[in-house]
Write a structure and sequence with these properties.
Number of domains: 1
Shape: globular
Order of helices and strands: HHHHHHHHEEHHHHHHHHHHHHHH
Strand content: under 5%
Structural class: mainly alpha
Oligomer: single chain
Number of strands: 2
Radius of gyration: 22 Å
Helix content: over 70%
């Protein structure tokens, strides 16, 4: 069951200096979670080059600390300033901010802290149970299944952005085009390099991720100007934070909300591309719909804080399931986490399950400790963490850009990486500006090589009759049906919605 590896990771944290990396990740994640517009994606993008030269397990602790802490950090500003630190914390504002206005900010923060910690624990417990089963599943997969799985992942990500199916598909196609730059995975022939030697090995992942998430976000902040929070009342910052324990106890009183939110978060997290925003809003809406008094929500109902925050942290465990089992990122954060794995010579997917148990369980320990550590530290320093949002973007933007570009250059000592980071940053900003999903592009870039290699393998095995070969394999048939269903689901929903409007 992998308990030896889990115990080994626990002992290493307890006895070694790894706890320092974990604490550093937690504090870094909390600060970036509190700052609206940044979050875990920007934090991990900055840390990718920093982990170069570190032990692979220490890198897991640092990344796990960030992933486990940003969710709760974002809830602090959502409650006190009505400004979510990260997108998934938007659902927390519905009842968190009204509670703060009623003088119950401490209660809301206490509930958020406890729900985040417990939700993360439930999500990771699910991951621990799944890993031994995942090994057996992975060993039964061949090239056909992996090809179809990558297509399913891309389709799920493209359609997950409600109302932007075409834009999601366009972003995915651009990502695949980027993935095909460099030498052919089968023949070794160069293609789409434009005579640039730098592109012979393809478009590097780390500069792309750093530009897409860190630099693009800084460009947006710089153009908006003002403070990071873009406003937010001073009284909200000075308000008393008391009644914390009352909020902690309320989580256990509403254990059904906690459990439902955690299970929704784990399930949604395991579906590539959906992530924390969908999980938190779905958990919130399901809680409102099943409550005896739905009208009390939006006015300061503590259950409206517990539901989204438990789902938000539980999704971390769920999103790691496709990441460690199949090499398919479940969210933007896990896409960046793949960059850290690649940097340390770890091949995400089946081989990681078989040969890198130490790192997998190290990450589980890191995120579990981070979920609890972030909640505890957040309760202690919440009043001071909120002050970070008052910092002028004129200070934040150049600092983050300088760290990002320096880190990318130090990685391999190539100025071309810096230029690529800037180019990807500009492209990322244009995607933000015109509302195209960046995650679809990034995951298509990550999965492109796997999809191409698996497709060629299927063609060679089947003597050119790939479709016939796949239709003869039960798992492949299931995946084909899942792809078709996933693609047409939003279209079917839109048709049904239009019919209901016409009927009304």
């Amino acid at each position: 069951m992998g308990f030896d590896a889990l115990l080994s990771a626990l002992l290493e944290v307890a006895n070694g200096g790894s706890i320092l990396f974990l604490l550093a990740g937690v504090m870094f994640g909390l600060c970036f979670g509190v700052i609206p517009g940044l979050g875990g994606t920007t934090a991990l993008a900055l840390l990718i080059p920093v982990t170069f030269g570190m032990d692979s397990l220490d890198a897991m602790y640092l990344a796990g600390g960030v992933m486990g802490a940003t969710s709760f950090g974002g809830s602090i500003t959502a409650i006190l300033l009505n400004t979510p630190g990260t997108a998934p914390n938007a659902a927390t504002t519905f009842d968190g901010y009204p509670l703060a206005q009623q003088g119950k900010a401490g209660m809301a923060i206490g509930a958020s802290a406890c729900a985040s910690a417990m939700g993360g624990l439930i999500g990771l417990f699910t991951l621990i149970i799944f890993i031994p089963v995942a090994k057996e599943i992975v060993l039964s997969f061949g090239p056909a299944e992996f090809f179809l799985l990558t297509i399913l992942g891309l389709t799920a990500i493209a359609v997950s952005v409600r109302g932007k199916l075409l834009r999601g598909l366009i972003a995915g196609v651009i990502g695949l085009c980027f993935a095909f730059v460099g030498s052919d995975a089968i023949t070794g022939d160069l293609r789409f390099t434009g005579g640039i030697n730098y592109l012979w090995d393809g478009i590097p992942l780390v500069p792309t991720l750093t530009g897409m998430f860190a630099i693009s976000q800084m460009i947006e902040l710089a153009l908006k100007g003002g403070s990071v929070s873009g406003g937010g009342s001073e009284p909200a910052i000075k308000m008393k934070i008391n009644g914390v324990w009352e909020g902690v106890i309320s989580v256990f009183k509403n254990w059904d909300v906690l459990l439902r939110g955690s299970l929704i978060g784990t399930l949604i997290g395991a579906i590539p591309g959906l992530g924390g925003t969908v999980a938190s809003f779905l958990a919130y809406s399901s809680t409102v719909q099943t409550d005896k008094d739905p009208d009390s929500y939006g006015k300061g109902n503590i259950r409206g804080v517990i539901a989204p925050e438990s789902a938000n942290n539980a999704k971390d465990g769920g999103s790691l399931i496709p990441t460690v089992a199949f090499g398919i990122p479940g969210s933007a954060e896990t896409a960046l986490f793949l960059g850290i794995l690649v940097l340390h010579g770890i091949d995400p997917g089946p081989t990681m399950l078989l040969h890198n148990e130490r790192e997998i369980y190290g990450l589980i320990v890191a995120i579990t400790f981070a979920a609890f550590g972030a909640s505890l530290l957040g309760l202690i320093f919440s009043r001071f963490l909120v002050l970070i949002t008052r910092v002028d973007v004129g200070i934040v933007v150049p600092t983050v850009i300088a760290i990002s570009l320096t880190g990318v250059y130090v990685l391999d000592g190539r100025m071309a990486d810096v230029f690529l980071t800037v180019i990807m940053g500009l492209l990322g900003y244009l995607m933000i500006r015109f509302d195209y999903p960046r995650l679809t592009l990034v995951i298509a870039l990550v999965l492109g090589e796997t999809a191409e290699k698996s497709f060629h393998q299927v063609q060679l095995i089947s003597d050119g009759n790939g479709l016939q070969f796949m239709m003869a394999r039960p798992v492949s048939v299931i995946l084909i049906v899942a792809i078709i269903f996933t693609f047409f689901l939003p279209i079917a929903r839109k048709i049904l919605a239009n019919r209901k409007k016409e009927a009304a």
